[in-house]
Amino acid sequence: MAMNRWMILAMIGALGAGSARQSFDFVLKDGDATLQVNSSAQVTGDVTNAGFLTLDDGSWGLTMNLQGLAAGNHDISMTTGELQIRHKDTGETFKTSAGGACSVWVDPHTMRNGSVVSGHFDCVGLTSVTGKKVDVTNGSFQVQINDTANNPFK
């Protein structure tokens, strides 16, 4: 009887472990104005082995081209990689290819589909397509890997 109870608890724990919530959070600073952005509970997206990350909650979108998914620091600038933040309610898109630079830290993780990749980022002078500049601080993300190269049955 005790063994069955432990087996059930272990199975429930294993099911919960695979359902990590995808999320992103960051602070946008425009001069003296500050906007705290926290993703909603309904975030879609994924990241590939090549470091292409997309997260979207319906109001905000975050995309990155990290040029790889290795743990550690990834520097993004106008000429290396890409980071974009889209505010769908205003239509404003800030991106490194228009100006600015970002530093992204990727935490250690396993390279298989469903594995969670987390990290944090900061940007200076991230520029919109209209020329508006913002700084991004305290950025964080959590996303699951989804890459066809990880599918052993392809």
Helix and strand topology:
Layout: H1 2-17, E1 23-30, E2 33-38, E3 44-47, E4 52-56, E5 60-65, E6 72-76, E7 82-87, E8 92-95, E9 101-106, E10 116-128, E11 133-144
Antiparallel strand pairs: 1-2, 1-11, 3-4, 4-5, 5-7, 6-9, 7-8, 8-10, 9-10, 10-11
The value of Rg in angstroms is 18 Å
What's the total count of β strands?
11
Overall 3D geometry? globular
Give the rounded overall mean pLDDT. 88
Helix content: 10-25%
SSE order:
HEEEEEEEEEEE
Provide the β-strand percentage band: over 45%
Largest sheet geometry:
11 strands, antiparallel
Unreliable sequence segments: 3-18
Count of DSSP H/I helices: 1
Give the terminus-to-terminus CA distance: 42 Å
- Total separate domains: 1
**Class from secondary-structure proportions:** mainly beta
Descriptive notes:
The radius of gyration is 18 Å and the shape is globular. With 154 residues, the protein is mainly β. It is built from one helix and eleven strands, in the order αβββββββββββ. The chain has one domain (22-149). The N and C termini lie far apart (42 Å). Strands 1, 2, 3, 4, 5, 6, 7, 8, 9, 10 and 11 form an eleven-stranded antiparallel sheet that branches. The chain has one helix at residues 2-17, and strands spanning 23-30, 33-38, 44-47, 52-56, 60-65, 72-76, 82-87, 92-95, 101-106, 116-128, 133-144. The longest helix has 16 residues, at 2-17.
